[in-house]
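Structural prep section.
Before we set up the soaks we want a predicted structure of the protein with adenosine-5'-triphosphate in place, mainly to decide which crystallisation condition to try first. Input record follows.
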Amino acid sequence: MTSAKFITFEGIDGAGKSTHIAFVAELLRQRGDKVVTTREPGGTPLGETLRELVLHQPMHLETETLLMFASRREHLAQVIEPALARGDTVISDRFTDATFAYQGGGRKLALEKLETLEQWVHPQRQPDLTLLFDVPLEVARARLDASRTLDKFEQEKATFFADTRAEYLRRAAQFPERFRIIDSTRTISEIQASLTELITAL
Ligand SMILES: Nc1ncnc2c1ncn2[C@@H]1O[C@H](COP(=O)(O)OP(=O)(O)OP(=O)(O)O)[C@@H](O)[C@H]1O
Ligand SMILES: Cc1cn([C@H]2C[C@H](O)[C@@H](COP(=O)(O)O)O2)c(=O)[nH]c1=O
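Run finished without errors. Recording the tokens verbatim:
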């Protein structure tokens, strides 16, 4: 793989994606890439302030969606585009696929509205590679329950996560050139072995 790749990690809450970001970053660094790791919502001081709001305050669905894209616009301007322009690889814990999955699939905002916002905020930018960590809801829920206090999204009911997961899988089928589905029911070391194979083959 040449440098300056934009890699995103996606999946329902508790799928295990964040667990593997440092591992993949280290794999890439070992082969000489400069790597920036970041996240959404967040990734900038303003984005982190917006993150606190969207993860903890009740709000209208369109407000929530617009704040996700506001955080993303700042993230692209301050972090993602400058890093890619320097030739660094960017690994982001979530990006626009999450808005389609959560606000579109989970909360039922019309996908056409999301496509309009996507065209406005990043008409030319898509991830080069999206790793979708996929698990049944019960597995994700058990992992979350064992690990931490739940935020606004993590407290959603099972049907919300079923619809969110279904939208992720629909997008993976729609964009097979950039999506790779990772079976995240396996052990961490089994998943790391797959990730090593995948990154080495890029
Ligand atoms: N393959 C795995 N097997 C068992 N436990 C795992 C596995 N992957 C992650 N975990 C554990 O599950 C919990 C959630 O993992 P992690 O934070 O990586 O999920 P996530 O998908 O990033 O969730 P969120 O999006 O809510 O941040 C953590 O306690 C983590 O140690
Ligand atoms: C980018 C983005 C995120 N979300 C949700 C998904 C998660 O529940 C939280 C925060 O993410 P984390 O992986 O747990 O750190 O925000 C969303 O609903 N829409 C989005 O666009």
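Observations: The longest strand covers residues 129-134.
Flagged for discussion at group meeting.
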